[in-house]
Amino acid sequence: MANRPMLEVVALEKRFGPNTILKKIDLKVAESELVFVIGPSGSGKSTMLRCCNRLEEPTSGDILVNGRNIMAGTRRDLDRMRLQIGMVFQGFHLYPHMSVLKNVTLAQRKALKRSKAEADARAMNMLEQVGMAHKADAYPGELSGGQQQRVAIARSLALDPKVMLFDEPTSALDPELVGSVLKVMKDLKSKGMTMVVVSHEMAFARETADRVVFMDGGVVVEEGTPDEIFGAPKAERTRAFLSRVSG
Amino acid sequence: MDRFLETFFNPVVMAQYTPDILAGVWVTLQIAAAIIVAGIAAGLALACLRSYGIRVLNVFIICYADIFRALPPLVVILILYFGFPSIGIQLSGPMVLFIVLAATLAAFAEEIFWAGFSSVEKGQWEAGIATGLGFTRTLTYIALPQAFRLAIPPIVNRVLAITKMTALGSAIGVSEILSSATTAQSFSGSATPLTMSVIAYLAIFLPMVAAARWLESRTAWKKR
Ligand SMILES: Nc1ncnc2c1ncn2[C@@H]1O[C@H](COP(=O)(O)OP(=O)(O)OP(=O)(O)O)[C@@H](O)[C@H]1O
Ligand SMILES: [Mg+2]
Question: In terms of CATH, what superfamily is B20-223?
Fold first, then answer.
């Protein structure tokens, strides 16, 4: 590959007590690439994603973001590097005591030390991008799940991340709200964002993903283009999983 | 009936001792304010410290909270006031009252704030950490305001319960309301000063109870 990967996971291992959840995972995500991760429940998809910003502490291995190792350096360095790694959770986790605008400006102000004017402008810009500018003064409790998730995406984007990680961003949503969030993600992809998406939205993967990674039992079993994985999976485990989710 | 009025509402006695009772009210208000501020601040600080999860420190904090929640404040007050001078520590009555009740309030407040922190969703912490805020700023801007709102009703109730205990000052000669009233009662031979103390306590605490109700009714933020 000519350009170096934007996100690189090297020999990532994670143990919880006696259980090894991730077994030497390697993954490279190029700039502007969208990698879609699938796998059965408990295969370690969330754990892998959460290791990428050290919400979960890897047992061993390295995580490189834009060439810099987030496993090296001080806590301060880590917090600074976390600004470059956006994360979107299944449960949104907006701050209920703050307005939408405040949700999007908080880390800009306190971590990036932007001025209020600058943070507000940036926030409105991002809210515009996810179609939520009209709700800037609302509180999270007043929004639908789909709206909350779009605000959560804006909150991450406002920090100018190099990579965005999505952990089942639409799994907690009513079916009719899923589309609005996927549309925002598609826009993001077309603007050149580097993304890793754990999700069950196979149609979205076919349409948008550059690469699909199938995980099972803490290892990457198979990876390839959406056509390769969905059309002609090589591994037996991949075939079994795909027939189960589509059946 | 006349006898009742004469005993509890004697106008002459009332007029004579009103200044004393008012002086007692002033003393009570000052000590109570100091107890509330110091107790809540210390309790909040302890709960924040505890959230860092430093083992040794937490053992101390938990022991402190448990001991001061278990002990009757009067016992500690008597020990500090009558016992400590013999080991060379001389504290004034108001100071003893303040220290013991503030320490007691701090113990309860620590537990209440801690319960508040514990009920802040893990995802809230993770969202803060993931956006580069780090532990301390996530604590300050995300967890603390949410814990605080949850803590307000129980804290207000505890503040009421503990500031009322300033009446224990009468056991060590602090001239707060009750002590002024009992002094006046023994000088006048009338129970009227005690009635006046009841009125004084109600005048102070009824508004606080009303404020507590009001706070409780508006602590839930806009629907989740
Ligand atoms: N904090 C933890 N302590 C102990 N075990 C954990 C912890 N977090 C996750 N695990 C275990 O790690 C394994 C992988 O979990 P993970 O959440 O990464 O799976 P997943 O692929 O995201 O599954 P799902 O599709 O259900 O979200 C599971 O067996 C889970 O029980
Ligand atoms: Mg998961």
Answer: MetI-like (1.10.3720.10)
